[in-house]
Request: fold
Amino acid sequence: MTQEIIAKYPSNIALVKYWGKHGNQLPCNASLSMTLTHAFTEVKLQCTPKNNAAIELAYFFEGKPKDSFKERIIKYASQQKEFATLLQQYAITIHSTNSFPHSTGIASSASAFAAIAAALLKATNTFTDTNFKNQASSLARLGSGSACRSFFGPFALWGNLENVENATNEFAIPINTVHENFSSMKDAILIVEDTPKKVSSSVGHALMNNHPYANARFLDANNNCKTMLSVLKNGDFETFIAITEREALTLHAMMMTSQDYYMLMKPETVFIIEQIFNFREETKLPVCFTLDAGPNIHLLYPASIEKNVNELIEQRLKNKLKSVLYDQAGLGGVVN
Ligand code: PMV
Reply:
């Protein structure tokens, strides 16, 4: 009989960025992210018993077979000992859909690998309820590093961090006791370009291996994680903004100063950042930006100033934008 599992997991946006890895998808520094709500991947996993040991896996994205991602999943799944028996005994079919369009600055590999890892792990039945999230987070990490943070919310920390109990490179941990200033954070994702990025994250991570500023960067990120953990408790918007924006610019500075340098920001990105600076200077409202590995902007603000931020978007930014996706902090995914 065919067993069916549905997993629905959100993406996340890093405030302190993971950029640089070693070993088996282990991060060179700790990172801290906000989990999203509306940007999610939903996976339907079907397992049908079979008699031969060869791997049988079919992958459909938005209803159509997608061979490039299928190969990536087969490689990923066959490398995890946790999935060995499942792959031997069952033919697997995965139907995946995203709630958000392609190449919009939302990390689709984060939500996709969170959902795929959770669904596969659930199908194995080899976990206890208490360790499911940690184990799934660890397995998701092996597919795409940032995916491990999508299991926890509203914020998640991933990576060893001095004096932070439970922090580990293996999986993310929840940061769920946060000041009310941050518990209802919104994220308006401002799309200036919706074509796929030219340089993949894996190439970007690899360029940190012989980057002249690597060690300073890793130290800075760990310090930013420590400060951000205090900020999330004490509600200090000013420091939140300073860390978040400097982290975004540092990520792009790392790309621009790699041996094989490249630039993902567009003129519209810089224009919008200037408008955000001006708006904040004029209104003193706590709105700030972050960037993923791409030109699109995540505008972060508390729900209390939503009206003002909508005005900012409508009056000053709209003519530079292809679209806007409205999201907010969330608590992670579900699998059944
Ligand atoms: O998870 P990956 O390997 O796609 O890397 C993600 C890297 C950034 O999105 C740029 C930063 C982060 O921490 O999510």
The radius of gyration is 20 Å.
